[in-house]
Amino acid sequence: MAGNLRDLALFNMAVDSKLRGCDLVSLRVRDVFAAGRVKERASMIQSKTAKPVRFEITETTRLSLERWIHDPEMIGLEFLWPSRIHGSPHLSTRQYARIVLGWVVSVGLEPSAYGTHSMRRTKVAQIYKKTGNLRAVQLLLGHTKMDSTVRYLGVDIEDALTLSEGIDL
Length: 169
What we know:
Keywords: DNA recombination. One of its GO terms (biological process) is DNA recombination. It comes from Paracoccus siganidrum. This is Integrase. GO terms for molecular function: DNA binding. The chain has helices spanning 5-17, 21-25, 29-32, 59-69, 93-106, 116-131, 134-141, 146-153, 157-165, and strands at residues 33-34, 37-38, 41-45, 52-56. By secondary structure, the protein is mainly alpha-helical. It has a single domain (5-166), classed as Intergrase catalytic core (hpI Integrase, Chain A), CATH 1.10.443. Strand 1 (33-34) and strand 2 (37-38) form a beta hairpin. The chain is globular, with a radius of gyration of 17 Å. It starts with a helix and ends with a helix.
C-alpha cells in the first residue's frame, strides 16, 4: 500500500473518520482540505441519519491525504476518491469493499471476518478498550442511542466486570 497514494490515504481516512463506507466514498476534497492544507478536524452529514458527525484527521492521515490531493491524478477533481469508471463521480461502496478485501487478503487475514465496517469500528473499539468511555464512542460514531453503541461494540458483562476490577475504592 505504501506505493499507492490513494489506498494509503483511503485506509488512513477510513480509520480516522469512523465513517460508514457510503459516507467515506462520497467525501469531497473541500470537506477535508482548505486554505492549502488538510484540516485537523472535519464534519459531514451522515447519509443514514442525516445528522452531522465530526471527526479528527491525525497527522499521519493528513500527510497521506496531502500527498494524494497533490497527486496529478487529483487535479481539478471534486471528490476525494474519484472513480475510474466513467459516469461515476466517486468510488462506489462496492468498489471500496473490493479495495478493503484486497487489503485484508494482502495481510493474510480471513476475508469473511473483515469488511468495510471493520474500518469504521477499528478506532472506536480501541478507544473503548483503553478508556471504557461509551459516551465518547457514541459521539464519535454519531449514534443517537447508547443502546446502539453498546450493541455495536459488543459490550457485555465481562467488559463491565473488567472495568469494575480496575477500580479500587
